[in-house]
Amino acid sequence: SAVISQKPSRDICQRGTSLTIQCQVDSQVTMMFWYRQQPGQSLTLIATANQGSEATYESGFVIDKFPISRPNLTFSTLTVSNMSPEDSSIYLCSVETNQETQYFGPGTRLLVL
Amino acid sequence: DAKTTQPPSMDCAEGRAANLPCNHSTISGNEYVYWYRQIHSQGPQYIIHGLKNNETNEMASLIITEDRKSSTLILPHATLRDTAVYYCIVRVAFGKVIFGPGTSLSVIP
Question: Which is the most buried residue in A7, A29, A54, A75, by most CB within 10 A?
Fold first, then answer.
């Protein structure tokens, strides 16, 4: 398995501002992912964070709104830009291990006022 | 879109076996069946996965039908701490994990 931490665990932000969420894993992994979970909903994949290249975004998500960095094999960041109340969600990162299994971080709970 | 169909909710008496069904009639030969659960807004927790053989670990058992079009996750002795949303997912190895709405399991004292 993999131990994943996220910072911050929660935050309350004003509309129009940006928040950067960090994801740290305790071992080197090839694939890291970012998900969003809106209130009362299931998880939606935002993008795959690729090490050394630009992230791959899913339909409905764009780099200007959700820029992602992946500077090395253990760390990634997701920025939620120019936030609005509709961005209030739980944001989760996950990693793919060589056991063909994805493990998830604890999530970052974001409330935008 | 998710490739699986699950009942939206189920109840189970504490101490009894919880049997959670999942239909995946369009599963491909190289796709695995994975189960995760999410306990009240925590990050999803991996439970078990399998390709075509039944699997068992310390948390649960996974029974996959011979035609692989459906499966059942079995929690042998459900406790209150097993109350969660359970997600059945099919994917190729190292492929995307696409979540459906899952099954909300309530374990009742």
Answer: A29
Instruction: Determine the Cα–Cα distance for residues B82 and B85; give it in Å rounded to an integer.
Output: 9
Strand pairing of B84-92 and A102-104?
unpaired
pLDDT along chain A (113 residues), means of 10: 94 98 95 95 94 91 96 96 97 89 95 98
> Best of A101, A103, A111 to disrupt the B interface by mutation (most B CBs within 10 Å)?
A101
Cα separations in angstroms, B45 against A30, A72, A103, B42, B67: 20, 25, 7, 8, 27
Average pLDDT by consecutive 10-residue portion of chain B (109 residues)? 88 97 93 94 92 94 96 97 96 85 96
A interface test, pick of B5, B32, B38, B49 with most A CB neighbours within 10 Å: B38
- In this structure, are strands A108-112 and A10-13 parallel, antiparallel, or unpaired? parallel
A100: left (phi over 0), alpha (psi -120 to 50) or beta: left
The pLDDT, as a whole number, for residue A60 is: 95
* Interchain pair A100, B45: CB under 8 A: no
